[in-house]
Amino acid sequence: MSASTAVPAPPRAGLAATVAWTVVPYALSVVLAFLIGGLIIQLMGYDAVEALRSVLTGSFESRMGMVETLHKWVPIVLCAYAFAIPLATGKFNIGAEGQMLVGATGGVAVGITLSDLPAVVLLPATLIAGVLAGAVWAGIAAVLLVRFRVNEILSTVLLNFVSFKLIDWVATTVWPDAGAGHPATTPVGEGARLPLIGEAPPMHSGVLLVVALAVFVAVGMRFTPTGFEMRAVGDNLRASMVNGVRTTKLAGAGLLLGGAAGGLAGAIDVAGVHGRMLEGMQSNFLLLGIIVGLMARGSMIALPVIAFGIAVLEFGAGTMQLMAQVPVEMVLVIEALILLLLLLSDVVRDRLRRAAA
Amino acid sequence: MSDIPRLHMHEVVKTFGPVRALDAVSLEVGAREVHGLLGGNGAGKTTLMNVLFGLYKADSGSVRIDGDEVTINSPKDAIALGVGMVHQTFLQVETYSVVENVVLGTREAGPGNATAAARERIVELSARFGLEVDPDATIEQLPVGVRQRVEILKALYRGAKILILDEPTTNLTPQEVDALFSSLRTMVDEGMSVILITHKIRETLAVCDRMTVMRDGARVQTLERSETDQEHLAAIMVGESHGSYEAAEVADVAGAVEAAGASADERSGGRRFEPGVVVKGATVRNDHGVELIRDFDLAVGAGEVVGFAGVAGNGQVELAEALTGVRPLARGSLEVAGTELTRSATAAWLDSGVAYVPEDRHRDGILPKLGITENLILGSHRAARNRTAGLIDWRGARERAERAIETFSIRANSPATRAGDLSGGNIQRVILARAFAHRPRFLVLHNPTRGLDIGSTRFVYEQIRAATADGCAVVVISEDLDEVIAISDRVIALYQGGQAGEWRGGEVDPYEVGRRMTGLGKEDVA
After folding, report:
1. Which of B38, B148, B171, B336 has the fewest CB atoms within 10 Å, i.e. is most exposed?
2. Is A244 on the interface with B (CB under 8 A)?
3. Domain end call among A282, A300, A318
4. What is the pLDDT of residues B161-171, one digit of tens each?
5. How many domains, in total, are found in chain B?
6. What is the pLDDT of residues B75-128, one digit of tens each?
């Protein structure tokens, strides 16, 4: 190719325009959701301004608020990966909470039975055990899918229920802590705990681990051939297959990776937050992960950022109840509104785009 | 014409968003007339007829039938006014009989209680207009040509006096086309009006009394059959500004091939080729597990173009996918340039230089939400040339995409333009660019020019010529018989998954190919 070719370089398609098309719908959806949410709060007879102010600022007004928010962010991000990575290959993993609980089980199994080992060995072993346990749990669904074409939505959802029974058995029979007053295991060894950072209240170092992971995932999706194949399959499975992508294998791999992320969420919460496994630790992270995964719309760069926003709302919910007496569930309503408006914005945007073209 | 025309559409305007699909188009069709509606893709022919049939609502303009102004808001209104339309794709209930399909939706009867009277009337209509069909056959047993007759019967049964046919000859053999045209003549002799939407000049001249040429959503001219010929019509279709040389090319597919560098006559029948692709005893199953293609042998020389002619549904998809490694061979073997590929994964086929231009561009060809860069790299994203240190080299990929956009004249703002936002012709250019980036040794194209304008069609032929010049073996599978004959060194008729005849380029009789691809042997010739 000679440099003298007269054709001008194609315009950069307005990078600013591309960003605007992406960011503006998010901003509008959030603003609108808060307006509608505020209206509902006002109609319910509470002080909407005070309620929304406390939701949004709770995380940023104290060190405690920020640490708690980041501690919530970790499982939300990981459960969002558990949903979004398989989704990139066109598969729906609705089993993040099961994978998280089994990951936590793997973590405590190592953390309790090998509690005497030094931290250098025990901590990585605990986390890796969680990752592997989560991957194996999702792997059951992956094998069923690849070998026997069992629908992954059904298998992952049903495996959640099996995981509830499993941790029930572990927390009440295998390593029960009789004094806990709630089904829980005995604590893991000191060496299995994630190092804490900063003055009280300290942040556990799992947060940094997940930040590093987020960078790794974003780069991997963009630059590795496998990451590209996932995006390609998510866009058009047939065309990817015709062009040599092994789609079934890839779908299985996506489920395994998703399960690994869910398992890590469980192990980090054991090693960083609870120091043990307890029933109910999965909270509503499955749902939040799905919401975040859907909001990210395939972008692994947007995903951790959105997850942080949701973590702020989740922490702010408690503050809101305290300050304005509005029930915490109101936050879930706002989150759902954001998602609905965002999905609606796709339709609006496509219309505008077509009109502009 | 002194008396009132059967149909008069006056200055019809239809816009889709910013696109002016119909720009004050007027059309007059008399009784006892076959009227050709001629134009390239996107000229607005089908849109105009969809307005007449009540599928689209016009923004402005009026429609008069037999002098009375009418309002048509739905196909139901149109049918009540005696307008019938045969679309390119038929809406038929596969498991119902011909009679049941014809009466379905009319007042007389639902399936099961189709009255004897209805059946009698259908038999009478089909005899009167030469629309040969077994009234009691189930639709799924019938070939496309007969299904089309059922569709015409549906319109006649509903009392159509204006019959619209949208590209009716696309999937027909030459014999079926002749039969259809003689039926149309019978209809107009009985006082009906027929509007034939087509982009084939030869057909228009063969059957139409008058013709209206459309271009870019506007009527260009209406002509009597007697005052025009092939060259003249082509010139009008393309537009005067393009000059007479290009106008002559548009006359037919052969013209496009000539422009690409070789005519069918020049393609010597006796050329010898180095061996390229060898298929032995291939057996291929269709999606239902039936062995549709059995013991299929094929040798394509390096630099040779082998064309498969056939009516859709005779194993084209299965053959194309088997030749490209997308669909596994149940038995048999395939080798490209001496490399056996039979048991390999699709990716290995691509690496060996097998490139596939699929029939369904949107379903099998592109990643609609990703950019041109991503689309071009798909399939070679694991190749060494696209990676640095194991990671995909997007900067290099983008540069190559920019070059491809230039070389293949893809109309797009940038390599980041989403493939789904491109037009059909440009999508095909992206797919071709990708195929050629693989440096193909074996190129398989399935209906490569369907739905493309003449410029893009020519471009495809040029690319095929360029590939053969580099010693690439080429298989073209197409339902456009003219295309197959024009670009192939060898023509093979495909019938029910088997090879029903083979001819050298330049020695092909289209009627003979037509007989073979519908399952008739030489001895069946009357």
Report:
1. B171
2. yes
3. A300
4. 999 999 888 77
5. 4
6. 999 999 999 999 887 888 888 989 989 988 887 555 555 578 888 999 999 999
Contact yes or no for B367 and A236 at CB 8 A: yes
B450: domain CATH number is 3.40.50.300
In a domain, B358, yes or no: no
Q: Do both B277 and B419 map to the same domain?
A: no
A268 Cβ contact list (under 8 Å, min separation 6): A74, A75, A78, A127, A130, A194, A204, A206, A209, A210
Q: What is the pLDDT of residues B192-210, one digit of tens each?
A: 999 999 877 778 888 999 9
What letter would DSSP give residue A187? P
- List Cβ neighbours of A344 (8 Å cut-off, separation of 6 or more): none
- Residues A345 and A347: their CA atoms lie apart, in Å, by 5
Q: What is the predicted ipTM?
A: 0.79
CA distance A356 to chain B (A): 9
Q: Is B345 on the interface with A (CB under 8 A)?
A: yes
Place of tokens 């003979």: B512
Mean pLDDT to the nearest integer, A43-58: 91
Would you say residue B258 lies in a domain? Answer: no
Higher pLDDT pick, B301 / B270: B301
Nearest to B29 by CA among B275, B210, B198: B210
Residues 6+ apart with CB under 8 A from B21: B14, B15, B44, B47, B217
Q: Which of B324, B345, B370 sits opposite A231 (nearest CB)?
A: B370
Token pair listed for B136: 């009691």
Domain stop point among B185, B217, B251: B251
Number of domains in chain A: 2
Whether A161 and A229 map to the same domain: the answer is yes
Q: What is the separation of C-alpha A171 from the centre of its chain, rounded to a whole number of angstroms?
A: 25
Point out the residue among B358, B413, B434 whose CB comes nearest to the CB of A13: B413
Q: Is B14 in a helix, a strand, or coil?
A: strand
- Tell me how far apart the alpha carbons of residues B160 and B141 are, in angstroms, rounded to a whole number: 27
My answer on whether A281 and A186 are in the same domain is yes
| CB atoms closer than 10 angstroms to residue A182 | 9
**Structural domain boundaries, residue A36:** 32-61+308-347
Is the CB of A21 inside 8 Å of chain B's CB atoms?
A: no
Q: Does A97 lie in the same domain as A226?
A: yes
Q: Verify whether the Cβ–Cβ distance B345 to A244 is below 8 Å.
A: yes
Residues B247 and B171 occupy one common structural domain? yes
Q: What per-residue confidence (pLDDT) applies to B6?
A: 93
Question: A23 lies in a domain?
Answer: no
Beta-sheet strand order (sheet of B305-309): B354-357, B442-446, B473-478, B305-309, B490-495, B498-504
Amino acid at A326: V
Does pTM top 0.90 for this prediction?
A: no
